[in-house]
Amino acid sequence: MNINIKTGNCDYKIPAVFPESLDSEITIEIRFPEHIPTGQSRKEVKESIINLIKSELQQFEWLCFGPLWIELTWFLQADDRQESDATGDLDNITKPVLDALSGLDGIMVDDTQIKSIYTRWLAKNSALPEQFLSINIRMLNDETISKDKVHFIQYHGPMCFVIDLNPAVPEELRGIKLFADAKRHQRQTASQMRKTGMDVGLVLIASQKDFHRTRLRNIPADRIYKLA
User: Which of 6, 86, 88, 110 could be disulfide-bonded to 215 (CB atoms 3.0-4.6 Å)?
Assistant: First the structure.
């Protein structure tokens, strides 16, 4: 089993090779044995796929916090699709794959960023000795952040926002505190306005940078600061 990464308008170090274009993409190709394994070996193949994805994506020095569009294409042997229940079982790998894309070892914060996900099955060309999975990830490269500096500030209940932060710089911490206080006030205002029947979610609350604390399970605890 092996993995290959292709990039469009990005590379391991930067999210936009040509900044004038807002679109970037990453395609992950994973080749696995000629026939889909069954039983315990099938579980091992799943784990190998996930580990391969993580080992490759952790080399990217940046993380996307904005919207993503994901397409999974399975190139499988036709008789395996018809004569085995293995392809049905592979449906269950979609969630683990998305988890492998998340966190500091991945390319996104959490799967709530995904605007659309499309999965399809195609009969592989007979010239291909192996079956393979292609994962195409498209994103807006102006909504990315350096993995070295990414932190999350828990500012209102379970709500957190992502920020580019160097904790060793006191001026940055003071600025973040002021920003967090403003966002907290904004949410409190929205809560009060809802009681009057006004729907102000899109105006006062909706933000690509906000995440619920439970969605940060793949983010190390020392990257999440909780404000009093």
Answer: 110
Check if the beta carbon of residue 54 is closer than 8 Å to that of residue 5. no
Going by their DSSP bridges, the two strands 150-156 and 224-226 should be labelled as: parallel
Mapping DSSP to helix (H, G, I), strand (E, B) and coil, where does residue 31 land?
A: strand
Backbone angles phi, psi at 196, to 5 degrees: -90, 0
**Looking at residues 190-219, what average pLDDT do you find?**
82
Kindly report the number of other CB atoms within 10 A of residue 213's CB atom.
Answer: 15
101-122 pLDDT per residue, tens: 999 999 999 999 999 999 888 8
What gap in Å lies between CA 6 and CA 21, rounded to an integer? 18
What pLDDT does 140 receive? 96
How many whole angstroms separate alpha carbon 187 and alpha carbon 212? Answer: 14
Complete DSSP assignment for 116-144: EEEEEEEEPPTT-SSEEEEEEEEEETTSE
CB-based burial label for 8 (10 Å; 0-12, 13-18, 19+): middle
* Short-list 156, 157, 175, CA closest to 165: 175
Terminal alpha carbon distance of the chain: 48
Whether pTM exceeds 0.85: yes
